[in-house]
Pilus assembly protein CpaB (Desulfoscipio geothermicus DSM 3669), 236 residues
Amino acid sequence: MKMHRINVILLLAVVFGVAAAYGVLQYLNGVRAAYVEKGHFIQVAVAGQYIPPKTRVAPQMFTMREIPAKYVNKDAAVDPGEITGKLTKTAIYPDEQILRGKLAGKNDTSEGLAFIIPEGKRAVTVAVNEVSGVAGLVRPGDSVDVLVTFEVTEKTLTSLILQDITVLAVDRNMSAAAGQGSQQEAARTVTLSVTPQQAQPLVLASEKGSIRLIMRSPADEKIVNIPSTNMNGLVR
């Protein structure tokens, strides 16, 4: 009988203990919910792993975590869309808040040319002068075609080898806003965004021929198919 009474007491103690723990948990959850509602907690992006520099951020690399507002960095990303697909400028470590300033956007040139080259493309620089570079009027972001004039079996030919190619940089300038003044100098180099397959004929043309850029309208994306022109083609 005495043992039975002890067992009952122990059982009641366990029940009351669980009930008390549940009550405390519910209270804390209520307090937390109230804090979240009042803005005392903020959901921010936190790295779930080590993310090296110059890495494109994928959803599995981070989690959204609620953190007390007083511990949230003002530059911390609060929306997955702010960081997904962007490149890291510096290393980000596990459990570190992901800061917007550590990421490079699509047209962010602050960290150099590599951050604005589209996936699958390469940056190739060609020499130009005032004539071949469209009188120095080409700016980053413009689209151009590339003509090459070369000698083949004692014949001079001009061919349209590339079309609708994006200009990444003019000389060392990667910003379209810079160098728009009336006194701007003619460019000496232009860097183009091309595929590896396009890079080969472009480099060959610049090494063995004479290239000229042709400015395109930003609204014109049409690709034309025309034969090469020789001296005979100029005679009517």
Remarks:
- The chain is about 20% helix and 25% strand.
- The two ends are 123 Å apart (CA to CA).
- Helices lie at 2-37, 196-208.
- The chain has a mean pLDDT of 81.
